[in-house]
Structure formats: C-alpha cells, structure tokens
Design brief:
Protein name: Ferredoxin--NADP reductase
Enzyme class: oxidoreductase
Number of helices: 7
Distance between the termini: 30 Å
Number of strands: 21
Domain FAD/NAD(P)-binding: 5-302
Binding site for FAD: 15, 34, 42, 47, 87, 122, 280, 320
CATH topology of the largest domain: FAD/NAD(P)-binding domain
CATH architecture of the largest domain: 3-Layer(bba) Sandwich
Subunit structure: Homodimer.
Strand content: 25-35%
Structural class: alpha/beta
Helix content: 10-25%
Bound molecules: flavin-adenine dinucleotide
CATH class of the largest domain: Alpha Beta
Length: 326
C-alpha cells in the first residue's frame, strides 16, 4: 500500500506537531490529521497572544510564537499534514495495520497511530441572529487572532463571560471604542478584580441587554441594534457565547478510557497494540496537563511506535548524533 504510513498522528496541537517532528527524526513516514483549519490546538484557539512562561527553553513566549516554532520544527521533517478532517473511526486490519476513517469519508492507513487529540474537538457557539452569515469571518469574529486588526476600530463584544471581559480589556487601548453586551446582570466565571478593571475602563458596558438586530448592506455590517432601542455604529463584532465541545469517542475506537482520557503505559501504549496516546488525551498517575508534558510524552510515544514497527530499533536516539538540519 503506497499510502501506508508508519505513524499517523490524530491532532495537530502542540503535542501532535512535536510528535510529527520526533517521528520524522526517527525516520518514520508520518502523517498528521487535524480537524481545525489551523494548527496549534488549544494554544492557538484559546490563548494565541498570551505569554507562556513554563515551556523549557522559553523564558516567555506567546502562544502564536510557540506554535510557529513547533510547527517549523514539525515541517522540517516533511510530514504529510491533512487539515480539516476529523477522524471518527479506527479499525485494526488483519495485517495489524490501522484504517482511519474521517467524517468526510476519507481513509488513511497506518502501521501505528498516535492519538494527540486532547479531549476532542471544539467549536465556538455561533451567534444566534438572523442575517449574521453574510458578515461572519469578515466583521463578525469568534476569536481574536491578532489584536492589531482592531486598531482604531469600533468594536462590540457580545459575551457574558470571562473571555468577553478579557477581550474587552485587551482591546480597550487598541480599538477606538469598545462596547460589551451582556444579556445578564453579572459576568460569569470572572475574577472580581477584572470586573472592577472593566468598570473603571473606557469600555461601555451594556448589562441585561441583547442584540436585537444587525443592520448593514449585503457586504458590510454597519450597526448593532440593541433590544433597548440603542443603535451602535460599529466596525467589528466579537462573539463569545461558549464552546461546543465534542468529546472524542475513544471507547468506540476500542480504547479503554478513564474520564474521557486514555490510560497509557510508560511508553504511552494503550490497550490496543500499535496505538499510543500523548498530551492531554493521555492519562496516568500524576499526569500534568501541560505543553511540556505533551512534548516528553510525544518522544515516548514515537519511541514506542518505532519499537513496535521494528523491535530491533534503538529505544531512543540523540538528535545531535543522527539528525542534522539542512
Ligand atoms: C486557557 C488555558 C491556558 C493554559 N495555559 C497553559 C500554560 O501556561 N502552560 C502550559 O504548559 N499549558 C497550559 N495550558 C494547557 C495546554 O494548553 C494543553 O496542555 C496543551 O495545549 C495540550 O496540547 P495537545 O496537543 O495535547 O491537545 P490540544 O491542544 O487539545 O490539541 C488537540 C488537537 O486535536 C484535534 N482533534 C481532536 N479530535 C480530533 C479528531 N477526531 N480528528 C482530528 N483532529 C482532532 C483538535 O482540533 C486539536 O487541534 C492551558 C490550557 C488552557 C485551556
């Protein structure tokens, strides 16, 4: 089978990307399959512009920069990367290899599988308003990818949670005007000092208020009309109304699970021979859900997969000895 890979990694988060690098470094034909249109998993999704201080070798690094670095490291070994496919089934074939099927019906074949898919997939809860479709992705956004894209813009944040408060505060000195629309009277899961900061800031808070209507032309959203009759002239709208999390059905893939995660042995092996797990997807005593833990587990999982494919292979290697960047 020409499309038979040595290692197929489910998930292109930080763990999956580092797994891809290490797998390539160990000379394995490697594929990564990611559901989202972008790589980086939770780091890209939840905190792309926040500083991370607890990854070895980086005294401080933004989420985006970390993902760019680990992505560059992964690409250096030339893995196949498949985007916007969600694996829904894994079947062990008679020869011991695996057939992975995505929700699009695509089939992927592999001698081993490394599950680096966290707890599953997540999507933002969409805004529930008529006519929003024509502005989504243009002026209606569900994540802040880059703060500077809001420079000088009139921005409305629709949210009743900590995420919306964080966004409004982050944009206060960048956007020309920031409004936050909360349908309730309080903000949920938020630190008191952040609410105090918000109240002292120039952000205009609209409590117990809903968006009634979006008005504009076919191509341009111009106003957000509130249910109290107020019309806000705007450039951009940011929406956080919660997440839709679709948990991975690991048990349907024949895997033992514990609280939605996959128990693993010391080489990240699962109960199914040839399937390994790393990162937030894996669980073992004293497991920590950290980026650095995923990196270490990625190496163990790849070394496990290498030994599974070739029992005579070395249990580990040094990059300084076997691998040279061109
Ligand atoms: C708000 C927040 C702050 C954090 N701060 C820190 C910090 O400061 N330091 C730190 O070390 N850690 C931090 N963490 C934890 C850290 O983000 C996670 O441990 C890390 O992102 C896990 O990476 P992962 O690649 O294992 O999983 P994920 O990042 O969850 O990536 C899994 C990927 O798999 C994809 N996927 C899932 N199912 C499928 C499927 N069936 N088919 C295809 N693709 C699939 C998903 O789309 C996703 O991209 C934080 C977490 C959060 C939420």
């Amino acid at each position: 089978m020409s499309d038979l890979y040595d290692v197929t990694i489910i998930g292109g988060g930080t763990t999956g990307l580092y797994t891809a690098f290490y797998s390539g470094m160990r000379g394995l034909k490697t594929k990564v399959i990611e559901y989202q249109p972008g790589l980086g998993g939770k780091v890209s999704f939840f905190y792309p512009e926040k500083e991370i201080y607890d990854v070895g070798g980086f005294p401080g690094v933004s989420g985006d920069d970390l993902v760019a670095k680990v992505g560059e490291q992964a690409l250096s070994v030339d893995p196949t990367i498949v985007m916007e496919e969600k694996i829904q089934a894994i079947e062990k074939l008679e020869d011991g290899s695996f057939e992975l099927t995505s929700t699009k019906g695509a089939k992927h074949y592999s001698k081993t599988v490394i599950i680096a898919s966290g707890l599953g997939t997540f999507d933002m809860q969409p805004l529930n308003l008529k006519g929003k479709e024509k502005y989504e992705g243009k002026q209606i956004h569900y994540t802040i990818q880059h703060l500077k894209q809001y420079a000088g813009k009139k921005t409305v944040v629709i949210s009743d949670s900590r995420v919306g408060v964080d966004w409004a505060l982050a944009l206060e000195n960048i956007a020309s005007e920031v409004h936050i629309i909360n349908r309730g009277s309080e903000f949920k899961s938020v630190y008191e000092h952040d609410v105090e900061k918000l109240e002292l800031s120039s952000v205009q808070i609209h409590r117990e208020t809903k968006v009634a209507e979006l008005t504009g032309t076919a191509n341009e959203l111009k106003e957000v009309v509130l249910d109290n009759g107020l019309s806000l002239s705007i450039d951009d709208v940011l929406v956080y109304e919660g997440l839709k999390i679709e948990k991975s059905l690991y048990d349907q893939w024949g895997l033992t699970t514990e609280k939605g995660r996959i128990p693993v042995g010391s080489n990240m092996s699962t109960n199914v021979e040839g399937i390994f797990a790393a990162g937030d997807a894996a669980i073992y005593p004293h497991k920590t859900m950290l980026i650095g833990s995923g990196f270490s587990e990625a190496m163990n999982a790849v070394n496990g997969a290498k030994s599974w494919i070739d029992p005579k292979a070395k249990s580990q290697v040094y990059s300084t000895v076997i691998y040279k960047h061109s």
